[in-house]
Design goal:
Radius of gyration: 18 Å
Structural class: mainly alpha
Number of helices: 8
Helix content: 55-70%
Number of domains: 1
Length: about 210
């Protein structure tokens, strides 16, 4: 079972590597302004660690690391599904018959959530963790606004954080609404962790709190 879990996690990391290739392979640093790509790099780091740890029977990433990557991937998938315009119907396939949008907005988020539900050791998270995980989206929003201030005329990555179009009032409202929704999503993740049984049970010494 350790081998299956480890290979699954490394496959998730591979999909995230493919999804972020424009940045690390082609040097498109502008892509770092997108939450999706930052989440992709977070997935690569945490899931490579978790995958190798599973294969070698070493200590797993701590609960806070798996929590923040699960929240970020869930945000990515839900925002793409509910808010963003759909991917062009003629988008080219890039890996295993999937398009970039399908990899970044569907396959990776779903796989990250599935790993949390099926393979993580549960009952490690606390309610306060949901607030700590929010540092990632909060820092991201701060980065986007700082970039817009320092580089006037730069395009904002998402319409719901476009200060030029929304003004401070509209932007503030969006930050409250989206921030509140993301925090509730974090609480849902904590609730699931507290309620779910651990289906895959690694040795206790391999699990970091």
């Amino acid at each position: 079972m350790f081998v299956v879990v480890g290979l699954f996690r490394l496959c998730v990391a591979l999909f995230a590597i493919v999804g972020t290739r424009d940045i690390w392979r082609d040097g498109n640093v502008e892509g770092l302004v997108y939450f999706t790509n930052l989440t992709g790099f977070l997935v690569v780091a945490v899931f490579t660690w978790a995958g190798v740890a599973s294969l070698l029977r070493r200590r797993q990433p701590p609960a806070w690391a798996k929590g923040v990557v699960t929240l970020a991937a869930s945000i990515t998938g839900l925002v793409a599904w509910l808010v963003l315009a759909p991917e062009a119907a003629d988008a080219p396939t890039v890996f295993l018959g999937l398009t970039d949008g399908q990899i970044e907005h569907r396959a990776v988020p779903l796989a990250v959530v599935a790993d949390f539900l099926l393979f993580d050791a549960h009952r490690r998270m606390r309610l306060r963790d949901a607030g700590l995980w929010m540092l990632f989206p909060v820092l991201y929003f701060g980065f986007v606004l700082l970039r817009g201030w320092l580089s006037p005329g730069s395009e904002y990555p998402y319409g719901f954080v476009d200060l030029d179009a929304l003004g401070w009032g509209g932007l503030g409202l969006n930050l409250v609404v989206y921030g509140g929704a993301f925090y509730v999503l974090g609480l849902v993740i904590v609730g699931l962790d507290r309620a779910l049984p651990t289906l895959f049970t690694p040795n206790r010494r391999l699990v970091a709190e």
